[in-house]
Design goal:
This protein is α/β, with parallel strands linked by helices. It has helices at residues 5-8, 58-75, 89-93, 97-108, 117-129, 169-176, 184-198, 202-208, 218-229, 239-249, 271-285, 297-306, 314-325, 330-351, 356-368, 380-390, 398-409, 417-421, 426-443, 472-475, 477-491; strands at 11-17, 21-30, 33-43, 83-87, 112-114, 138-144, 149-155, 158-165, 212-215, 291-292, 456-460, 463-467, 496-499. The chain contains 21 helices and 13 strands.
């Protein structure tokens, strides 16, 4: 039987030779899931080394090759096919790219693949789509690189529209702020140039439409971090936020003066160019808000290597891999999940748990509530919560990960209400989800060796009552004792639990 790439190469790597930075990711294929082991990135600004004849100067080549020499040590010994190296806009533009590519291949021992702008866009979208929840509706992805900007509209894991334009934070910085001076007029030139680039396809993008906009590049991350550091929301990018940051930038007369909070020192000088491109993009496409994700080209290359393009929720894949890795009792997890969701169906209305995310979170919590047992039985709920909060869980937003960790943390013994309160209005709903999970676990204390009865649940504002068949509780004293003990725990957080 022929091997799939995942079976043949349990250790894989991707290198992205970009116009601003060179990135590398090293990963293990574990339980059919990509598990990142190392992520490296260095700003070498190849695009800054392109002269008027579009030749890459020796200084830029040296910066790039020195970086690749360091990366070569990490991939030494990996077989052909386990490493994929892609080069993007700077080398697409360089007339002497063959010289750089030949020297890079000698260093790395693997082929360097020059990808087109559209192919780059496809791989970016693949990386982004595997790092976000598999939601219904179209998604607009924007990636501002050093020499080009990619625009993709896709649905789930398929890209429907892919565009790549010759504008980037390094090339525009060199063109419009090359002498280090910063002014409204220079910014306006960069903005106008970007709007002109966008005119060729902005109507097609608007016509196709999308339900969410996501940015996947270092420039967009820097803008998001600058807005968060400046108190302009929680990192979400909006037109108002862009206007605020623009005013802040233009208070400086030179790039050397820039010291924007939240932005790394080596990205300060190219921030105005990136901001001009993003502002033009917002205006041309009518974007109201944009979030940022870490998934990008190199992650897309990894997924492309192993052929991971199936239409399934990346979060479900992530949790399945986690359950297998921590040797979860799958039958018990399924029993608890089924019972928890059946209770939810009965109390969702009075307890205000009607949103789909309530059902998802409860389902996830039931599946992984025992992962901490693989570390130790003592305080296993705390071990599980720590894993869920701090692990790299592909597809999960940070806040979802924190909520899931808290649900697992509170599924036995004391419920840390102060931690739940940190989620504001949703905190009380999370407590209620936690109570449902606790009861489902209690209900299946005897693991599948006993036929369990149908139970009816009634919920009040601060109460939950379980109605068993007549005489069942008296005939099953362990469950009755469990309910009595649980009632004492819930009384501490102001809830009354009854069973009859």
């Amino acid at each position: 039987m022929p091997y799939t790439p995942a079976e043949a190469f349990p250790l894989i790597a991707a290198i992205d030779i970009g116009s601003n930075s060179i990135h590398m990711v090293l990963a293990r294929v574990d339980q059919g899931e990509i598990r990142l082991l190392d992520r490296l990135g260095e700003k070498v600004q190849l695009a800054a080394g392109l002269d008027e004849q579009r030749n890459l100067d020796e200084a830029a080549m040296t910066r790039g090759l020195d970086c690749l020499r360091r990366y070569a040590q990490l991939i030494h010994g990996l077989p052909q096919g386990a490493v994929r190296i892609v080069a993007t806009n700077a080398l697409r533009e360089a007339r002497n790219r063959a010289v750089f590519i030949r020297r890079a291949e000698e260093l790395l021992g693997h082929q360097v693949e020059l990808v087109s702008g559209r192919e780059e866009a496809r791989l970016i979208y693949l990386g982004v789509s595997h790092s976000l929840p598999d939601a219904e509706g179209k998604r607009l992805v924007v990636d501002i690189g050093g020499g080009s900007t990619e625009f993709i509209i896709g649905e789930r894991f398929d890209s429907l529209l892919r565009e790549s334009q010759q504008m980037g934070c390094v090339s525009y910085s060199k063109r419009y702020f090359g002498d280090g001076k910063l002014s409204l007029a220079r910014y306006a030139q960069a903005y106008t140039a970007a709007r002109l680039e966008l005119m060729s396809f902005e109507q097609a993008v608007r016509k196709l439409g999308w339900s969410e906009a996501v940015g996947s590049s270092g420039s967009i991350r820097a803008i998001s971090q600058a807005l968060a550091a400046g108190g302009q929301g929680n990192g979400e990018i909006t037109p108002a936020g862009l206007a605020w940051l623009k005013r802040k930038l233009l208070k400086c007369d030179s790039l050397a003066e820039l010291a924007i909070d939240g932005v790394k020192a080596d990205r300060q000088s190219i921030l105005p160019a990136g901001l001009a491109i993003l502002e033009a993009t917002f205006d041309a496409l009518g974007i109201d808000s944009m979030s940022h994700t870490e998934g990008a080209l190199r992650e897309g290359v990894l997924y492309d290597m192993i052929g991971r393009q199936s239409h399934e929720d990346v979060r479900e894949r992530t949790l399945s891999a986690l359950m297998e890795r921590y040797h979860v009792d799958l039958e018990q997890a399924a029993r608890v999940e089924t019972k928890a969701l059946s209770i939810l169906a009965q109390v969702a209305e009075p307890w205000g748990l009607n949103d789909e995310w309530h059902r998802e979170l409860l389902s996830w919590g039931a599946k992984v509530h025992e992962i901490g047992m693989d570390i130790a039985h003592y305080h296993y709920h705390k071990h599980g919560a720590y894993i869920l909060e701090h692990a790299d869980l592909a597809g999960f937003a940070r806040i979802d990960q924190q909520m899931l960790a808290l649900l697992v943390r509170g599924h036995r013994r004391n419920i840390p209400v102060d931690r739940f309160a940190e989620f504001g209005e949703e905190g009380e709903r999370l407590v209620r989800l936690c109570i449902l999970l606790r009861f489902a676990i209690l209900f299946h204390h005897i693991r599948g060796t006993q036929e369990m009865p149908e139970v009816t649940f009634h919920a009040g504002p601060r109460s939950l009552e379980a109605v068993f068949p007549a005489g069942w509780l008296e005939a099953n004293p362990l469950t009755q004792a469990d309910i009595e003990a649980e009632a004492q725990w819930l009384a501490r957080v102001g809830y009354k639990l009854g069973g009859r």
